[in-house]
Specification:
Distance between the termini: 11 Å
CATH class of the largest domain: Alpha Beta
CATH superfamily of the largest domain: HAD superfamily/HAD-like
Radius of gyration: 18 Å
Strand order of the largest sheet: 6-5-4-3-2-13-14-15
Largest sheet: 8 strands, mixed
CATH architecture of the largest domain: 3-Layer(aba) Sandwich
């Protein structure tokens, strides 16, 4: 039987259930594997603070992938990889949304700063409850003067509006990756950044083969990661195209889907 030595987990809709909790059997098996020396890598579109909140809940101590690969940190929290959207492009994208989709909320993420226009907007407040992170009100154009780049932008609105923005922005900003992390969420990242890229970099960091990687995800932002891994597992709550791209489909994030797969695999 094939053996695995590296596990990648998306967070929202994958590791966390609908109540934003790590399910008990999943937590137990992840802790057992990590104690055996198997790195459990949280690979998320979240900020460092948002990822670390879940890492603590799960009791893990491995490297983490933030912003879908724009920022990768070691277990000791030194920077393993740091890339982002060019500052001028980020400002232009935000202005594009303001000009043509003024009802869509756009957040900006710069290292562990979550920058918004209105901290009291319902979409921002909901995201704050989910991520357990605190937004900061401010202007992106001023904020970028003190950083090398913007790690990601996040657009939130209705499913219909997000689809319209994704289609329009794909033509206007060909150097950006636009990926859905949920029906009402559009993740905006530099073209060269993806969860697959992050998996490859951590794979090299640990010196393991592609075939030894197992990865779990539930949405379009996870597609390339699932296709690259030796075993890519789609959650039962994933949309059809994500399930079709995966090597295996498990139960949903509310049904211990990660646990059910991991307990059936062999690890070296």
């Amino acid at each position: 039987m094939k053996r695995y030595s590296l596990v990648f987990l998306d967070i929202d809709g994958t590791l966390l259930d609908s109540n934003h909790q790590v399910m008990p059997q999943t937590k137990q098996i992840l802790n057992r594997l990590e104690k055996r020396g198997i790195p459990i890598i949280l690979c998320s579109a979240r900020s460092p603070g948002g990822v670390e909140t879940v890492e603590k809940q799960a009791g893990l101590h491995s490297p983490v992938v933030c912003y879908s690969g724009s920022l990768i940190l070691t277990a000791e929290r030194s920077i393993l990889s740091d890339e982002g959207i060019q500052k001028e492009t980020a400002v232009s994208f935000k202005q594009f949304v303001l000009d043509y989709f003024s009802d869509i909320v756009v957040s900006s993420y710069l290292y562990d700063v979550w920058l918004v226009d209105d901290v009291n907007h319902p979409a921002v407040r909901r995201e704050a409850r989910i991520s357990q992170c605190t937004p900061l009100a401010g202007q992106l154009q001023a904020a970028v003067e003190s950083v090398p780049h913007v790690h990601k932008l996040l657009a939130i609105s209705s499913q219909q509006q997000i689809t319209k923005l994704q289609n329009a922005a794909a033509e206007e900003f060909p150097d950006l990756t636009l990926a859905r992390s949920g029906p009402t969420y559009l993740e905006v990242m530099p073209k060269e950044v993806s969860k697959r890229m992050a998996v490859e970099r951590i794979q090299k960091f640990y010196g393991v083969n592609q075939a030894e990687i197992v990865a779990f995800g539930d949405n379009f932002v996870d597609l390339e990661m699932l296709q690259y891994a030796g075993l890519g597992v789609a959650m039962g709550n994933a949309p059809g195209p994500v399930k079709e791209a995966a090597g295996r489909i498990t139960a949903s994030n509310d049904e211990e889907g990660i646990y059910l797969v991991l307990k059936s695999l062999k690890f070296s």
